[in-house]
UniProtKB/TrEMBL annotation:
Name the UniProt record assigns to this protein: Redox-sensing transcriptional repressor Rex
Gene coding for it: rex
Keywords: Cytoplasm, DNA-binding, NAD, Repressor, Transcription, Transcription regulation
Binding site for NAD(+): G91, A92, G93, N94, L95, G96
InterPro entries tied to this protein: CoA-bd, Rex_DNA-bd_C_dom, Tscrpt_rep_Rex
Localization terms from the record: Cytoplasm
Family label: Belongs to the transcriptional regulatory Rex family.
The species this protein was found in: Alkaliphilus flagellatus
Amino acid sequence: NKSFANISMAVIRRLPKYHRYLKELLDKEIYRISSKELSRLIGFTASQIRQDLNCFGGFGQQGYGYNVEELYNEIGKILGLDKTYKLIIIGAGNLGQAIANYTSFEKSGFELLALFDINPKLIGMKIRDIPFRDVDELEQFTLDNHVDIAVVCTPKEFAQGIVDKLNEKNVKGIWNFAPTDLKVPKDIIVENVHLSESLFTLSYLLNEREIENNKQE
Ligand code: NAI
């Protein structure tokens, strides 16, 4: 197993986008691309692309460009997408169910085992054959089943209490949607997703443009 621990987080955050565009190229049976063309497609500068891809060995060849398939596979490996992961969702309301209904994660190797909720009305139901379970069963379930990732979709006031029931022996990562910063043992990795941060960035940009436009009038 190669280690990519020295790649900066800024590069890592760009890799999923490369991965997505390279997949689109492969689907169109395009097997070779220059950094310039890739730049036009993705919107990063050609020099940024060369720099990013050089971080892990540089697949480009002068005058040839990049081998799309090789690059796609290598980025997939760096992102750990050559492996499979078992997921559970905790908090099976609007958001939890939306994620459970989304089938594309499975195609990338993320298999949902169960949804956990406190609401007795939900328990026993299924989404795509995946059962809703009582949150009281959470600890035992994670001991009996190999779980890699817990997806936290409860109201924020319950999120920490739930996470406290998990430890590095029963989950490795937490994909946190609750708008709160979770405290976890050091061996558990948390990745937060906050749609509002992205939305507020958009509102900033809209306002910024309005100010610019007003200046020009
Ligand atoms: P919801 O109210 O539809 O669902 C919450 C679910 O959690 C309910 O089914 C409830 O029974 C369950 N629940 C409550 N306490 C629990 C516990 N102790 N153990 C297990 N389950 C429990 O709410 P919605 O809209 O699905 O939002 C869920 C969370 O996601 C909220 O914290 C919300 O703020 C957050 N959210 C985050 C977004 C993001 O971008 N990160 C976007 C939308 C929502």
